[in-house]
Each structure stands twice: as structure tokens, then as C-alpha cells.
């Protein structure tokens, strides 16, 4: 039966929308069954008029450019279904019912009307939220993924909270000059205060410039240049000793500049960017800082991510996510020379690769249950074990999702992850594991869900910073 469906799809891709295959099974004397296929092709049809209903803000050309068929092309049903996926990925126009097909037998054309509704009409938002990583925060934001109905992204954002103050101006056009190329620019000012166990406070100011182009329906390549100046205050605190005494923190104040080029590859066939049920997302990003680009930080940092969603039924799906990264310092000798006055015992690479550039695991976006940034390697600094951040990391997530009703999602999950020190081998036996359940609530005022998380530490160890209950706003991956 599956083979017959593939035959029918092959004909539908060539415009034979009424193609039908009839199979007959004849058993011969040797006990072998002969299969006879009768193919009824019918007529070949082309796309006639393509129209949209319900787009009160979004212009027709913005929706039309996501359709991979032009009027007059052969009516390829498989390509048309892929186009409906692309419309769903926009995030600001939702197809609410099956398209209306009007077939003209005389002209052998199919007129199509795509019916939907606008999403995310509010351009000015005032509100707040909470995450384990950044605590409570309030924000005032003017942002739209569909500025003036042209599909452009424009944002002015101000956020103030317990762990981060952030201001940014950004603009991006996913169809620059009406071509499948993207262009973006942003300016930002960010103050970050990580948990006391990590002890990093930083102030960063900079901007980015990005350009990209589409390779295929769901594939794209982009290039980003980022320049930022960072003032970092690091109070490295060792864990209490066996008597409960906390050693004095080791204070380091540094100022560095990162000049970075970031080429990246992205594949995204998810049906929805905020509430994915099927499809795949894969990214490969390489950050190259320093060297001929200037700046005071010299490193190469590749990061990869792969996420896939498998629908099991109309209401349930299974998803799997894996991600990892690696930091390669590219000027260790120069860094050691510049830091020659450091006292013996201090980590020279600590300042070659600032802690804010390193990898930390834990929190509701990686290893649920563990506090944000709490999974990290330690280094002996002046005789004390200090959480310094990893030079490599790996995270694995498995989720079973059930759509209870339209705003509610019940999720069962299992997470694993670890961050590794400088030149430390990736060791699966050192992975930390959690499992639990999560309730996600989609509200009209948020594109991202409210998340209520209950997690269990599957391998408790001394010194774990673990919370059974967590609350956040946003997706896991």
C-alpha cells in the first residue's frame, strides 16, 4: 500500500491530480503472486490563480513569495504542501483551514485560495516574565515580525531584571530587495549578572551586521559580523570546605574586545517556530574571533544543533534534540606572554578565553532541574576549586508531547548534558541526567509558552544545585 501511495504522489507532483492506481493480485501455480498495476493518469493541470484570504495586514506578495509555485506552473501537489509549511514558519500568518481548490476542466487549471488569519498583530508590548537563567524581568518592547505587512523584522527593546539589563535596536529583512536573501543590523547594550555561584558581572556594548541567502526550500547560509567591548568583573567563589567555611573570592577585572565573523548553516522544516509538532531543525555555526579581525580574544568556536519532531498521532509527537560545542584558543602563546605577571597557580587560559565566552550547562533550556550555569568544570586557582566554564559541552533532550487542548501541552522529558574542561575528552560516563514532566500553556499575549517544570535528579551528587520545580517562558529548543 505504501508503494502505491508513492506512485500516486509521483503523478501528483507532475500535475496529474486525478491520477489513480488500481492493483490486481494474481496467484500462479508456483505460489508466486503477480501484481498488475493499472494507472489512470487523467489530465495534467497547472496552477491558475493564487489568492489569499484573511491577511488583513500582510501583503499578498509577502505570502506569495513563500509559495514555491508560480501561476502557470504544473500543479505539483507535493511542492504546494511544502509551501504551506513555509507559510506556517513565518509566525505571523496562520493557515486555519484547507486551501480551497477550484478546478477548471476546460483550461486544465486549478485556482487556489489560501485561507488564514493574522498572528502577532500587537507591535507594542509591555510585560514581564521569569526564567531560572535571568530571574524576574520587566520589558518594554516594540517589535514586529511583519513590519507594515512587508515581512520585515523591526525591534526596539528595553529589558530590566534581576540578572540582566538589555537595550537593543534591530532591523532585518528576510527578503532583501525582494530576493531570497536576508539582511540585518543591530545595536545593543547589555549588563549581565550571573548567579553568585558563577560570580560574573559584565557590561557589553556592540553591534552586528548579517547577510544570508536561501539554498533551498528549508536551507540557508548566513554570515554575521559582531563587534563588542566587554567589561567583566569576575568574583570566582570556591565551594565551602568540609567545615562549611567559604574561601574568600578571587577577584579579576578584565576588559576585552571581541571581533567575530560567524558563518552558519541552517535547515528548518518545522511546521511552526513556536509550537513545533513535526519537522527538523539543524544548525552549524562557527565563531572566529581575533587574528586578522582584531580584538583581544582569539578563538574558534564551532557549535552544532540538531532537533527533530516525529508526530505519533494527531495529538502526540516525539522530539529529540542534540547540541554541542568546542572552543579552540588560537593564540595561547601570545596570551601567556601578556599574562606573564600573574601569580603562579592562576589559570592563564582563564583570561585567554573569558569565562563569559565559555560553555555552561543547566537550566530550563538545557538540563532541566539543575540551576542555570551549575554544570561546569572546576579548576584549581590558588588552591581552591573554582567553577570556570567549559571548553566543550554536549546536551541531549528527549520529549514526548501530548496536546491536551489548544492552549495546553503536557510534556514528558529526559535530559542529559555536561560541560568539559580544557583539552578534556568528551566522556559519556560523566553526563548528568534528569527526567520529569512539564506543562506548557500558550496565552494570546505570548508567542512562547508558559512552562511549569517538575524534574528529578537521576544521579544525585554532592554539591548539586538542583531544584525540583522550575518556571519559565519560552521553548526548550
Short précis:
With 477 residues, the protein is mainly β. The protein is 9% helix and 51% strand.
Relevant terms:
17-stranded antiparallel β-sheet, four-stranded mixed β-sheet, 5 helices, 477 residues, 51% strand, mainly beta
What would you note in describing this structure?
With 477 residues, the chain is mainly beta. It contains five helices and 25 strands. The protein has a 17-stranded antiparallel sheet that branches. Strands 3, 4, 5 and 6 form a four-stranded mixed sheet that branches. The two termini are 36 Å apart. 25% of the residues are buried.
User: What is the tally of helical segments?
Assistant: 5
Strand content: over 45%
Overall shape: globular
- Secondary structural class: mainly beta
Oligomer: single chain
Distance from first to last alpha carbon: 36 Å
Mean pLDDT across every amino acid position = 82
Total count of strands: 25
Radius of gyration: 27 Å
Give the SSE string.
HEEEHHEEEEEEEEEEEEEEEHHEEEEEEE
* Helical residues, percent: under 10%
What does the main sheet amount to? 17 strands, antiparallel
Q: Give the low-pLDDT segments.
A: 122-130, 336-349
Fold blueprint:
Elements: H1 2-12, E1 20-27, E2 33-40, E3 46-53, H2 60-64, H3 77-90, E4 93-95, E5 100-104, E6 109-118, E7 124-131, E8 135-147, E9 152-161, E10 164-173, E11 181-193, E12 200-214, E13 219-236, E14 250-268, E15 279-289, E16 299-311, E17 316-326, E18 328-329, H4 332-338, H5 348-352, E19 378-381, E20 384-387, E21 392-403, E22 408-420, E23 432-441, E24 450-457, E25 469-473
Parallel strand pairs: 3-6
Antiparallel strand pairs: 1-2, 4-6, 5-6, 7-8, 8-9, 9-10, 10-11, 11-12, 12-13, 13-14, 14-15, 15-16, 16-17, 16-18, 17-21, 19-20, 21-22, 22-23, 23-24, 24-25
Amino acid at each position: 500500500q505504501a508503494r502505491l501511495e508513492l506512485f500516486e504522489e509521483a503523478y501528483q507532483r507532475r500535475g496529474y491530480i486525478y491520477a489513480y492506481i488500481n492493483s490486481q493480485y494474481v496467484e500462479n501455480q508456483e505460489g508466486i503472486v503477480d501484481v498488475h498495476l493499472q494507472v489512470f493518469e487523467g489530465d495534467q493541470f497547472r496552477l491558475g490563480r493564487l489568492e489569499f484570504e484573511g491577511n488583513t495586514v500582510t501583503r499578498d506578495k509577502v505570502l506569495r513569495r513563500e509559495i514555491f509555485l508560480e501561476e502557470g506552473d504544473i500543479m505539483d501537489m507535493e511542492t504546494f504542501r511544502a509551501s504551506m509549511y513555509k507559510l506556517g514558519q513565518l509566525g505571523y500568518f496562520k493557515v486555519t483551514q484547507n486551501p480551497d481548490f477550484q478546478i477548471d476542466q476546460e483550461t486544465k487549471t486549478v485556482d487556489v485560495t489560501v485561507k488564514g488569519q493574522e498572528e502577532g498583530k500587537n507591535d507594542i508590548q509591555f510585560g514581564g516574565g521569569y526564567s531560572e537563567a535571568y530571574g524576574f524581568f520587566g520589558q518594554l518592547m516594540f517589535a514586529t515580525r511583519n513590519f507594515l505587512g512587508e515581512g520585515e523584522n523591526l525591534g526596539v527593546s528595553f529589558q530590566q531584571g534581576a540578572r540582566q539589563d538589555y537595550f537593543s535596536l534591530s532591523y532585518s529583512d528576510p527578503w532583501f530587495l525582494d530576493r531570497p536573501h536576508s539582511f540585518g543590523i543591530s545595536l545593543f547594550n547589555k549588563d549581565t549578572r550571573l548567579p553568585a555561584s558563577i560570580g560574573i558581572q559584565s557590561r557589553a556594548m556592540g553591534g552586528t551586521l548579517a547577510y544570508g541567502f536561501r539554498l533551498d526550500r528549508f536551507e540557508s547560509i548566513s554570515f554575521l559580523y559582531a563587534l563588542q567591548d566587554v567589561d567583566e568583573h569576575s568574583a570566582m567563589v570556591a565551594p565551602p570546605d568540609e567545615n562549611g567555611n567559604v574561601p574568600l573570592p578571587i577577584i579579576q577585572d578584565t576588559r576585552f574586545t571581541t571581533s567575530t565573523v560567524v558563518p552558519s548553516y541552517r535547515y528548518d522544516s518545522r511546521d511552526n517556530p513556536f509550537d513545533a509538532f513535526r519537522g527538523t531543525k539543524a544548525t552549524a555555526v562557527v565563531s572566529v574571533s581575533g587574528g586578522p579581525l582584531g580584538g583581544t580574544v582569539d578563538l574558534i568556536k564551532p557549535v552544532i544543533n540538531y532537533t527533530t519532531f516525529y508526530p505519533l498521532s494527531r495529538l502526540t509527537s516525539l522530539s529529540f534534540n542534540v547540541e554541542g560545542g568546542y572552543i579552540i584558543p588560537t593564540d595561547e602563546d601570545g596570551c601567556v606572554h601578556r599574562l606573564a605577571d600573574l601569580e603562579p597557580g592562576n589559570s592563564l587560559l582563564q583570561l585567554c578565553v573569558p569565562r563569559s565566552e565559555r560553555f555552561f550547562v543547566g537550566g530550563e533550556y538545557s538540563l532541566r532541574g539543575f540551576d542555570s550555569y551549575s554544570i561546569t568544570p572546576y579548576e584549581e586557582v590558588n588552591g581552591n576549586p573554582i567553577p570556570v566554564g567549559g571548553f566543550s559541552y554536549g546536551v541531549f533532550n528527549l520529549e514526548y508531547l501530548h496536546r491536551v487542548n489548544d492552549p495546553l501541552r503536557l510534556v514528558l522529558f529526559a535530559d542529559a548534558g555536561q560541560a568539559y574542561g580544557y583539552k578534556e575528552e568528551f566522556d559519556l560516563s560523566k553526563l548528568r541526567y534528569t527526567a520529569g514532566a512539564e506543562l506548557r500553556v500558550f496565552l494570546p499575549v505570548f508567542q512562547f509558552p508558559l512552562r511549569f517544570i517538575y524534574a528529578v535528579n537521576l544521579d544525585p551528587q554532592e554539591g548539586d544545585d538542583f531544584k525540583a520545580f522550575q518556571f519559565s517562558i519560552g521553548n526548550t529548543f
